[in-house]
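Ticket #4471: complex job returned nothing on first submit. Input attached below:
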Amino acid sequence: MRTIPFLIICLAVGAAVFAGAIASGNDYLFFAGYVVMQYIVLATAWNILGGYCGYVNFGTAGFFGIGAYVTVAIHQWHPLPIPLLVLIGGVVSAVIGYGMGYLTLRLRGAFFAIATLALAVVLETLVVNWDYVGGSRGAYIVRPEAIAPFGSYIRYMFMIMMLLAVAALTVARLVERSRLGYGLATIRDDELAAEAAGVPTLRLKLIATTISGALMGMAGAPFPYYIGYLQPDSTFGFDYAVNAIAMSLIGGTTSWVGPLIGAVLLGSLQQLATVTISSAVNLLIVGLLLVFFVIVAPNGILGLIHKYWQHKSDDFVGRRRVDLEAAAPAPAADGAPGAPP
Amino acid sequence: MIFSFDLLINAIVSGILIGGFYAAVTCGVSLSFGILDIVNIAQPAFIILGSYVAYTLNASLGLDPIVISIIVLPAFYLLGAVIYQIYYLAFERRGQESLRGLAFFFGLLFITEVTLVLYFGVDYRYVQAAYIGPTWHFGAIDVPLRILVPCLVSLLMIAVLQLLLTRSFIGRAIMAVAQDQLALRLMAVDPVRIKRIAFGISIATASLAGAFLIIIQPVEPSVGREYIGRVFAICVLGGMGSLPGTVIAAMLIGIVESLTATFYGPSWAPAVSFGILLLTLAVRPAGLLGR
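Support reply: We reran it on our side without changes. The output follows.
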């Protein structure tokens, strides 16, 4: 499928969701839907670096928080329209992503992961010491009641986040099928071999980190208007990081569909659990699901579906079942008559 | 701020003392990340777990926190061995340790923290012991016992670990498994067993480090986050897997943090270790005493 038809289909689905939510007449759906859309952006962004390239970013909250606090800082100076804030937040977190990537991506993947893990703590320290954006007291941002064509403001925000989600998915899909995506896949499989084969590994990793960081920052930019009261402790907490990782890994990391599935499933589940149980318990569930999936189904839901189809088609042509989980290199059974079982 | 010599000396002394404690926090990671190449980012969570074990037994039985942590060492060792076994079966054997192994430990970190929040709440907890409170004075220098005692016990623990690693058979096997697993297998030693033992020891150190932590400061479940950047900064700066390097780096970072806190304000201290970590990675990734 080409990119333009894909984009049109995405927008059509988005419009249908939007129309459905308006038809229900319940504004809570927009509040819940906003969070799910936000997670689609975050998980997709995480997956561009984590899934395609194999470099783990624990700093989702950091990049998200940069976007959010850039908005707060600008709001203190002069309120700007949200789409503009999204752009600015995206640029700032892209720059920080690039800088951090430049310092750490030349080393083994573990160092990058550790640096991103500490990033959120440092950004929190900066914000706590920066009185202009509220310091440790937090910052209040009053959301306008209504905006012209949409009625209530949350509908407007929901639409922005949905467009962001469509944009993120399109970017992820483009990356996946471009030279960049193939280059990233070679890095994921064997970085040394990729480097030896002439893949400019550092440059590709930096591009992926920058795109990923920019999308996360963009997801964070409208957040202060959504939440109304922004506090460094909760903004830079682990919740976003664990969610972005869990959603991507549970969905499946090799394709843009995986984070989408994971975010919609886990995001909706959490919205239900937050209302019915408690928010701490639902975070525990996310953590447990993450550990469960990485141990039991390392390729996520996509991997399970893939395996199911493979088994089915194998049965159909009467071939021997190939256990994908086996550690040994997959036997090239088909076509080679008399190959040892 | 007016420069004061007393303030400077006190900052340096307390930095060295805190550094001794940081060394205890880090030596587990030096073992797992530095020697075994297992990126155990969940170590701070196990340290907080150690703090809460010390708190619970201290509050109910009135035992000394350090004594408690030594009593529960075997339990932490077992926990570590079990975690390694899962890690080995699920990731290392399949060759998927980089991405999914990291996600696994991150999940453990998160689960431990949330479970502690659910069980104990987010109130600060502290322990009772004779040495918490009094301070020795040497001229202008103040030495609070609540930091001196953990520092000394910590250095003792690291000395014992270093002896274990360099003198005993198991220790030498642990050093060998880091270098060449195949050679170890040819010597009829099971590398998985050696790694399991080593990882068990690395988690066991979290029991003591947790007790030190709760002696030095009141603890709540998310305190561990501050230690992630610090622990890995020390581990990398010290030169991966070198215990003497860990001690030196821990004291350096302790001093720099203490000076920052004294002259710029304590709220800036968490940024120090991150800055040092980035600087080390950019300038000398092998660390001070790197192999």
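The mean pLDDT of chain B is 88. Closing as resolved unless it happens again.
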